Description:
Strand content: 15-25%
Low-confidence stretches: none
Order of helices and strands: EEEEHEEH
Amino acid sequence: MARCEVCGNDYEMSFEVHAQGAVHVFDSFECAIHRMAPICEHCRVQIVGHGVQVDGRFYCCAHCAKAEGGEGVVDRVGASTPA
């Protein structure tokens, strides 16, 4: 068992996340997101999806990036396929 670095729960199904040379231990995806998700530079929401990056700054969407001066930024949308 390993102790979650966010909530301190010592849980038999905890898991490790290896990122940027560090190892993190969590007991849930909720705790992993709380610790690891970047925060939008404009609206301060935690970015759980793709988001966008402009000049090394993270945004949750193109709207927020544009509000901070990002140019030519568009949200990624899935292409619809004919049935």
